[in-house]
Design a protein that fits this description.
elongated; alpha+beta; 4-stranded antiparallel beta sheet; Tetrahydropterin Synthase, Chain A; 9 helices; about 15% strand
Length: about 375
């Protein structure tokens, strides 16, 4: 269209230049009219009067200029329509938007939620200012640090130290890892969801540290305390519909205030020494316990062998007695004499024997 308009303007300019050149050539060929009038005045003796310039015929040129203007306006109107159509098309195409794989989108129409979770891909919404799109990375793990520190100056403000169950003050830092579970609620529930979550984490930490002793918080109950803080913080967030999922909560540090840091170090050293002694005692017990078990097993085996030996010996004695009794019943006198001799032999073999002959010389017989 611009090329057509330029060609029309060039044609009109060429025509006007040709008409101007033709008029000048005609004026050069004809004698001026005021020259004849001057000669007639000189012949009659009348002074000559200046004759006004001849009136030119410009009606044809004005018509052509008006036609050129109308033609230019018509071409400009067409050009404007084309530009306007292109602008409308571009405005409508601005409603196309893309959601990346790790994102979710929320579409608003005049501030009201039209679509609460737009999935990854290419979508269309009405152009601004009718609709607008907010994109959130729902798979990104975000981190919020909650610090309980001492005041910056000695006289400025109250300390953020936590009070434990045994009335000790500790300084701590919590690291909260979370993701956006529901983008629409995350955007419209409050103007500053992270700030509100920080306040909730502070309240939960104050409550549970007040129920836990400092020794347990530093050692055995630390893991359980982290799990409890995470669960209670998640429950508080769900009650407010913030659309946040707490993936983990970790107690980064637990330190005493600077005024009592030395005493805490001494307590910590004593605790470590106690634990060291306990571990040494457990090691000694584990070393001696197998030995004691082996000795006990050996004694049990020896007792069992002695018992079996005594049983067998008693059985032998019983069998021997039974055999002797049977022989005694067959020949009482012989068997009795034999048993007497065996008994005397057994008894006399155990004692010291002195044999004296009363008839020997030098031996005094007692009356």
């Amino acid at each position: 269209m611009r090329a057509e308009e330029s060609g029309a303007a060039q044609t009109a300019s060429d025509e006007m230049a040709a008409e101007t050149a033709t008029g000048e050539a005609a004026a050069g060929e004809q004698p001026p009219a005021n020259a004849d009038i001057g000669r007639e005045d000189a012949a009659s003796g009348t002074p000559s009067q200046p004759n006004p310039e001849p009136r030119r015929d410009v009606d044809g040129g004005d018509d052509e200029s008006a036609a050129d203007i109308r033609r230019a306006l018509k071409n400009g109107k067409k050009l404007g329509l084309v530009i306007g159509a292109l602008g409308v098309l571009l405005y409508l195409m601005s409603g196309l938007y893309a959601i990346e794989p790790e994102q979710r989108g929320v579409v608003f129409r005049f501030g009201r939620i039209l679509e609460d979770e737009a999935l990854p891909g290419i979508h269309y919404r009405l152009p601004w200012p009718i609709d607008r799109v907010e994109r959130l990375r729902t798979t990104e793990v975000r981190t919020l640090e909650v610090a309980f520190d001492e005041p910056k100056t000695l006289k400025g403000g109250a300390s953020d130290a936590l009070l434990t169950g045994d009335e000790n003050l500790v300084l701590s830092r919590l690291l909260v890892h979370y993701t956006v579970k529901e983008p629409a609620r995350f955007l419209v529930s409050t103007a500053a969801p992270e700030r509100l979550m920080e306040r909730l984490a502070r309240e939960v930490a104050i409550v549970h540290f007040a129920r836990t002793g400092v020794d347990e918080a530093l050692t055995t109950a630390r893991h359980e305390l982290q799990l409890t803080l995470r669960d209670d913080l998640q429950a508080a967030l769900d009650s407010l519909n913030l659309g946040i999922r707490v993936s983990s909560l970790r107690i980064s540090t637990i330190d005493p205030p600077s005024a009592v840091a030395t005493a805490f170090k001494d307590v910590g050293s004593a605790r470590e020494d106690r634990q060291k002694r306990v571990e040494e005692a457990k090691g000694e017990r584990n070393r001696q316990l197998p030995e004691a078990r082996g000795e006990a097993q050996r004694l049990r085996n020896e007792a069992s062998a002695a018992a079996q030996e005594a049983i067998e010996h008693a059985r032998g004695d019983a069998e021997r007695f039974t055999s002797a009794w049977n022989e005694y019943r067959k020949a009482r006198s012989i068997t009795a004499h034999r048993e007497y001799l065996e008994s005397v032999e057994t008894v006399l073999s155990r004692v010291r024997k002195i044999i004296a002959n009363p008839d020997a010389e030098g031996v005094r017989r007692q009356p």
